Amino acid sequence: MTVPVLKNYAGDKWVEGDGGLRDILSAVDGTPVAQTSSDGLNFKEMLDHARNVGGPALRDMTFHDRAYMLKDLAKAIMDRKDELYEINFATGATRKDGWIDIEGGAGTLFAMSSQGRRHLPDDKVLIDGPAEQISREGTFMGQHVYTPLQGAAVHINAFNFPVWGMLEKLAPTLLAGMPAIVKPATATAYLAEAAFRIIIETGRLPNGAIQLIVGSTGDLFEHLTGQDIVSFTGSAATAAKLKNHSRIVEQSTRFVAEQDSLNASVLGPDATENSPEFDLFIKEVVREMTVKAGQKCTAIRRAFVPSKLADAAENALKQKLAKVTIGDPANDDVRMGALVSAAQREDVREKIAILATEADIIFGDPANVEVLGADPKIGAFISPVLLRCANPGSAVKVHEVEAFGPVSTLMPYDDLGDAIALCNKGEGSLVMSLFTHDPKIAREFVLGAGAYHGRVAIINRDSAKESTGHGSPLPVLVHGGPGRAGGGEELGGVRGVKHYMQRTAVQGSPSILTGVTNQWMKGANCYADEPHPFRLKFGELEIGKTIETKERTVTLDDIEHFANFTGDTFYAHMDDEAAKANPFFPGRVAHGYLLLSFAAGLFVDPAPGPVLANYGLDELRFLTPVPAGDTIKVRLTAKSKKKRNDEYGEVRWDVLVTNQNDEAVASYDLLTMNAI
């Protein structure tokens, strides 16, 4: 049988390595699955191609353009997922494991596409926070903005999730407008290369947007600059080596690390053997030990239970683990497949031996395992191994050494403070989970342990049905953690996009900043000429288009009618003496929502037209009370626009309501949906 040779993708061409081919073996039967090499690649040229071709092309697109591109990439992965599932089994992963990797990867692209369209502008500049008034009169302002870095993102991925691991990095990188060079782990590079091919064959990516290295990175790091970024997933030892590379230090190249960590799960002190939280905890620990054969950066390595429940927890875990069938992952009767390689199995065995110096093996045999449909001596199979450490407070190795496989250590704790201290002995993790039904315990745990963990999953009988569980990183939440976990962050919705951008403070006049950001700022030029802004379609409406309305006097009859009609008879509107006793009011005043209604009546153009709907209000503030006899008027200004689809877009209007003294009465952002 001919073994396929994986190809690199450099300079928008598929390139086979120039010699030095290395076999990649099946985790199940040890036969060669593919060969790989990156010999002969010019890594400097790859970086230059990303910076000079891919970067400009991506930056020429808006956030929404890139978001729709991600959506199309996700669809392509889903359309051809069966091809990837077929390859997936050779990695030792079951179909269920592959679902997390393959469809989970596509789901991340879909989610980040949605985040981009929902939370980012249909523009090339991302505004960060409100403008800052620097000068007294407001003619000199400051505004923080994000723009894409003008280098290349180097993605170094781990072997355990060759599809998801690649796509969860590509999604925020491409959405930010930065090109990427992907380096998958060699052990599963054949699955990553197959997914990469699907992406390239969509034709949706501009030239230079992504490149692939399926072997060594050679002298790639020697050519990094301060505009580049390295995003790494893997061991702490490798991260430390890369992070301290002389070029990264000299150039201050950004380095994001997501390292394996000793994640913990805690059964709360309020639990009993018969409580739902006990059963949920047992189920989650077993699941995290066996999904992907425990080869997850988020897997539960340390399981803490109240001392009084230690024996019960041990018995329950052993009973569930005994039901786990191990073998050929293509077999439907198998629940746990193989480790990724024989070398990985040996590493896990070595780490178990270290842990066994402080803990007893209470389930499983690292040296022997029964498997279905495969040869345990040839495939990289290993039994789930559960250890129990009687004195976790004085132990060291159980809080420092990770066996990256189906291995976890059960440990007792005395009280809540002890449980928090034990969790934190891991010195930083990607995630910890807490199984409790008591909100007070949950709060105390977050206050005590939050600083040591990137994510805290609190699970109980109320949330279990819909919970995503302990070990599932979500595109909209931060994936990363402090200390041992690497100190970096990935995903987190728009937060993840900003890692690939530069935050810059821009200073200038309101009109200059409006020009830079494409968002109107107070004090910038306005355009009050005809027609009424509500007569203009989305594409015709210019930022800064304004209408200043006529005045309207608020009467006592208006206030009383509104109060009786709505039922809002709050004393500030109906009792003059009581209102005067309030330090905020001069006496009876108009309802804030009455003023909003009057404001709408002043600026709305009622005839059918491009404005399809009032979508809502943001940033509403009532600034100055309006007693009967005061006169109000409105200035309405087109602030920003965001296209939603081919039929309509969202327009954000700055609304300022003032009184006869030109004092601000109310201010808010009005959102409308306008026809394209």
Description:
- With 676 residues, this protein is of the alpha/beta class.
- Helices cover 32% and strands 23% of the residues.
- The strands form 7 sheets. A 7-stranded mixed β-sheet has the order 14-15-16-13-12-17-18, with helices on both faces. Strands 22, 23, 24, 25, 26 and 27 form a 6-stranded antiparallel β-sheet that branches. It has a 5-stranded parallel β-sheet with strand order 9-8-7-10-11, with helices on both faces.
- Helix 3 (81-88) crosses helix 4 (95-119) and helix 4 (95-119) packs parallel to helix 5 (164-176).
- It starts with 6 loop residues before the first strand and ends with a strand.
Task: Give a quick precis of the structure.
It is built from 19 helices and 27 strands. The chain is α/β, with parallel strands linked by helices.
**Overall pLDDT metric:** 95
Number of domains: 3
In helices, the fraction of residues equals: 25-40%
Strand order of the largest sheet: 14-15-16-13-12-17-18
Rounded to the nearest angstrom, the radius of gyration is: 30 Å
The stretches of 5 or more residues where confidence is low (pLDDT under 50) are: none
Number of helices: 19
In CATH terms, what is the architecture of the largest domain?
Answer: 3-Layer(aba) Sandwich
Largest sheet: 7 strands, mixed
